[in-house]
Specification:
about 40% helix, single chain, 4 domains, alpha+beta, 16 strands, PH-domain like, about 325 residues, four-stranded antiparallel sheet
């Protein structure tokens, strides 16, 4: 890629993980054997179907074929992911092109170049201690700049990015963290909403799992009464509907934070008259760092969010502090 100029700095981070590569090579041998075995079984079934026609069809055969096709699809996706990771282990390299106007990066050998103008960079942050280096855009997109190199090299790259792009090390007081949503504004009450995508994906997965279970029961066990199949399907729909139709919502007004839910029908929120916000940095028994943002109401603590990554609790705490007019105190 001919993107470099006289003012562009090129940075490369590499890591060779031979032990992981050896394990993946061994695992991929079993993966290939499983892939070939299932393909042979399905191929033999297809040949039998062509030779015997409808006489070869049965509920049991259709159920087994459906299961094998689903298994084959998931197994193939897993194997392709392992192949990609194997390539990163033996020949991986993270390339970064850095200038005051933009940052461009890719994960070699499979990643494509991504270029983000300085005006669209919200924050550069190393998630958790020694973790990968991520970039948040002003639209809320999260992009991994580098997961290779040593933690010290990624920390040095973060410092270089912050300095070259002239980024505020603690931005966000005027807006929510990337990925969070704010509705209202002006005369309307601002509403903070948790990102709904994770819940929606989980709801869709529940629906698919319950639907697949109901189909398997109907196909493989035709003696099972229809109410059982109907109950399984309805249970999946209800659970999926819950996760698809509801999301947590916070309403901010005059120093009061109302914690509630947004969904098909009204639910009375829990209103908190805050005296302060508290951001606590702690370490658990495994040595992992945790960052917890809490609302303090008459001496009692109400946890708002907790994460191993300092970004969201810190950013959200300063946003809420400015909106609610209450102090943010850090501990630990």
């Amino acid at each position: 890629m001919d993107a470099a100029t006289s003012t562009t700095e090129r940075i490369e981070l590499k890591t060779r993980r031979w032990l992981t590569a050896a394990f993946l090579t061994f695992w991929l041998s079993g993966w290939a054997a499983g892939e070939l075995t299932v393909l042979l079984v399905l191929g033999k079934g297809a040949v039998t179907l062509v030779q015997q026609g409808r006489a070869a069809l049965s509920l049991e055969a259709l159920g087994v074929a459906s299961f094998l096709l689903l298994w084959l699809a998931l197994w193939t996706v897993g194997g392709l992911g392992a192949l990609r990771e194997l390539g990163r282990c033996v020949a991986g390299r993270d390339d970064v092109l850095l200038s005051p106007a933009r940052v461009t990066f890719r994960a070699f050998p499979f990643g494509r170049w991504r270029s983000v103008p300085r005006s669209e960079v919200a924050r550069v942050h190393q998630r958790a201690k020694g973790g990968a280096l991520w970039l948040w855009t002003t639209s809320g997109e999260k992009l991994c700049i580098s997961s290779l190199g040593t933690p010290e090299e990624r920390a040095a790259l973060q410092v270089r990015l912050m300095r070259t792009l002239d980024l505020d090390p603690r931005p966000g007081a005027a807006r929510l963290p990337p990925g969070w949503l704010e509705a209202g504004g002006g005369e309307a009450l601002p509403v903070v909403v948790f990102p709904p995508s994770g819940g929606r994906r989980f709801g869709a997965a529940c629906l698919a799992a319950f639907s697949a279970s109901a189909m398997a029961i109907a196909v493989l066990s035709p003696r099972v009464s229809s109410p059982v199949v109907l109950a399984a399907g309805l249970g999946g729909l209800a659970l999926a509907g819950w996760f698809l139709g509801w999301r947590r919502a916070w309403t901010v007004q005059d120093g009061t934070l109302a914690l509630g839910w947004s969904g098909p029908f009204a639910v009375e929120p829990r209103r908190l008259a805050l005296s302060e916000l508290r951001l606590v940095h702690s370490t658990d028994s495994d040595g992992d760092d945790w960052h917890t943002l809490s609302a303090i109401v008459t001496g009692r603590s109400h946890t708002l969010t907790s994460s191993r990554d300092e970004l969201d609790p810190d950013w959200l705490g300063r946003w809420l502090s400015g909106r609610l007019g209450v102090p943010l105190r850090e501990e630990g």
